[in-house]
Amino acid sequence: MAYSVSISVEAPIENQIQEITYDGQELYQSPLSMSENLARLAQKIDFNKVIPEEVEKENSDSLEKSDDESSSKDSAAFQSSLWPWDSVRNKLRNALTEVCVLSDVLAIAKEKRYMVLDPVPQEGVETKPMVQVYARKKALAGAATVLLTGAERLRTSQTEISRNRTTPDFHIELLRLRQNWRLKKVSNSIIGDLSYRTAGSKYAQTGMFEVTKAEEENPTTGSPPPSPGPGGAPKPSSALRVMVPSELQGVAYIEVLCQKDQEDLCSASINVLGSGPTATNPDIHWQQKLEAAQNVLFCKELFNQLAKEAVQLQAPIPHMVVGNQIMATVLPGIQLIISLCHSTGTDKKPPSQNPPQKSEHDHVLEHSLHQLLREVHHKNTHHPFPHPSSGPIGPSKKRCLAGPMAADRYELMEMMKSQTLLEQIIQQAQHFFMRLRTEYVLDTIAKEVKDPLIVSHWNALNSPTQSCVKINIMTHGYDSVCRTSLIVHVGEKSLKCVCRDGRVMHMSYEPQELRDLIFCQIYQHQITAVQALAKCMGWQFLANSSHLGLGAVEPLGNASSCILASPIGDRLIAVRCEPHMGVQVAIAQSPRKDFFPGQLVKERKWENLGGSFKEVRWDKMEGKNFLNKMELLMASLTSS
Amino acid sequence: MIENVSQPVSTATESLNAARNIIPNQEYLLQGSVMDSAVEVLLHRLRGLCDNVDSGPEPFYDHEMCFSIRGAGSMQPLLLRVRRALDYQDMPWQLRYIGQPEIGDKSRPTIVRNSIDIGTSATVVEFLTELGCRMDFEYIVRGYMFRKGRMKITVSKIFKSGQGKPLDNMEALSQSYLVELSVLAPSGQDAIAEDMRSFAEQLRPLVQLEKVDCKRLQHVP
Fold it and tell me: Locations of Pro residues compositional bias (chain A) (predicted)?
């Protein structure tokens, strides 16, 4: 039976087995590396073996001996086996010999018994001092020339730069630019942003500008300076150029006019849009250019916002937006015109058509518009922080309180309402006109009416939509006797008057109403003043009435009157004041002068009942003013 | 902006459903801490990076109480937090529910968790006690708030509130400040997490803001 048996044939293991682990794995001894091999060979060198020269000497010495040949053969045989290392061994052996000799000599010399170390007398080096000096001088001269040439070169280059270049370095300029504006580097170019984005603006137009190096210009040092003319001396240009987008070039401002109604609205166009080339004046410094461009962007945003609101708002008289003008009605008969004036600077012609009644541009309202837009920006970025701090950012304090305080839908809707820019500026313009009218009315009255003096004090502190004026009515010379004061609050479309006695009167924007009110107050003042004067004079006050129902119906207000009696009671004065007719004074005296006993009234005693009133011709009366005349009248009628 | 009042009146449920998409009920959070000695540098850096450099950081001083109520059975207790501002006494108190962080994929840059907060009056503590909640712990936190866009950054120090008046005898819990970067957003706006991560990168060498797994820090009794 033949069984096939597998026989494995392997090459013998090259490396020796170092150990066999417990799981049967064999660990081989790794073959020797180069350095290990070298070490193995070096170990085979026997340094005690004799060198070939000594071997030859020995051979020559012991030529007689018979075993010379064998020893030489042996040494020769040995020599040939150590051939690669022989020179190494010889050199090491020589070194060893030398070192041994040296150590022996040093040991003996140290002992100082048989050998002593003595210094060899040195001969002084003969140096000639002059040679040394000359050598040194030459060396120093060489170094000096090198340094001087270098300094000279630097100095010439510096003077050349400072003379030729009147402009500062590009990088210094760029640093200044970066200190004022936001710049960033995009691949090869430097782009900047002059918009109000980071300040809270949400306007879509970008304000990107590009910064480039200015081209090298020919220095104008050689040519004579130009004569001073309209061109002027050439200004030093800067090292960098700034390119703003074409729609932001030039100068713009918002013009705000308040003017009376015009029949022909189309004629009041004040456009100064330049249609010339958009090449900018290269002499403008980059700072001014960028500031102007930023202003143009701001004005555009402002006008855009106002125009949007003008279209969306529903006013009793609709606002009109035509081209770059917005027309809004402030008060009946007065219009507010807001226009965007953008000039690119090349259009030197003055506007050919000046509207005939051009009121002045209102700088205050323009400033207000700028402030209002800035306030909108500010609100966009400065949201209130939540307190406690784990709340959401955004809701205002009112909104946060709306929950716990159970605000209803109406309150929430009210919270959401806010005034648009256009509404706010219209309110400011309305208030401006109300104030103007009130001033005019008061000034006119003060000029017309001299008898009681009208003094008005305007409050120094006021808001764009509310002012206050305090009016004092007093008579010259008698201001401590009686003074009537009232306060008028000027709002946007109405006035509110608060009198000293507590009466509050609301008036509309018609100036006539205020005038009528003041006149009524003047005549009431007269009566009050007469009463106060009577107290001073000792006269008694018998009766008065603020709203007299006697006599003709007054067109304006009501007549007021008072009756005074002299200290001893023998004279009576009756005064009646009303705004239309003025003042009427009548006197009566107690024992009648014209008593005649008649059929019915027989006895004399009835003359004491007092006579009828006789009117005084007031215009013939002596006295500076009404109160003065009253005083004199009372003085003359007083008989002690 | 003037509201157009003449809208068609919708039912309450319709408007609630429509509003669900805009109610911020998710909180994205990153946390870190700095030692007391390093906090000035961090505040200076935040002041430069965040919005409104001119107005400076907003300080806050809050008192927080944590309540828990156990439902019927051995369910997880419901945790509620009540927080009030000690420096602004007229602002409403805040009742807050914070859910467990979403166990999403590990690649999310921030912790995302449910967060519902409600403004309440000062009687909320009494209300919760009547409901059956017990106060687990309370603490006082004091620090600064910063804002960058929608992100809110707070640097605060936590104090143990003494008995009685919280103002005196406050001892700090540690010698470090807690730095938190958070955004409250409606669900589904995961892009904000990337912005938070890039902002955290800018604060990198001063403070390391990262997702902190609270479960690993809690000691299970």
Answer: 222-233
